[in-house]
Amino acid sequence: MGLRLRLRCLNRVALLLRSKQAKNTEAERRACEIRLRAERKAGALLASMDLRPGRKSKRSNDTTISDLGISKDQSSKWQQLAAVPGARS
Questions:
Q1: Is this model's pTM higher than 0.85 or not?
Q2: Can you tell me the distance from the alpha carbon of 39 to that of 8, in angstroms, rounded to the nearest whole number?
């Protein structure tokens, strides 16, 4: 295989890789949008729920965010996102 042919093949491979990366960027952007919408909806749900902060006592049946598998930081950030007026959900 001559040098020109090798360079041409390498150039085509590089072009294919760049086009795949460009398509992945769009998919990544869509995934971020979906995640943001889900976090906003979760924040709105958390804000509307009657949750108790911290640990529950042995006698209590109250639900805490940790029972839902959500950290305090996540709950706070998601509720802040949900509170932004005019943003799409």
A1: no
A2: 47
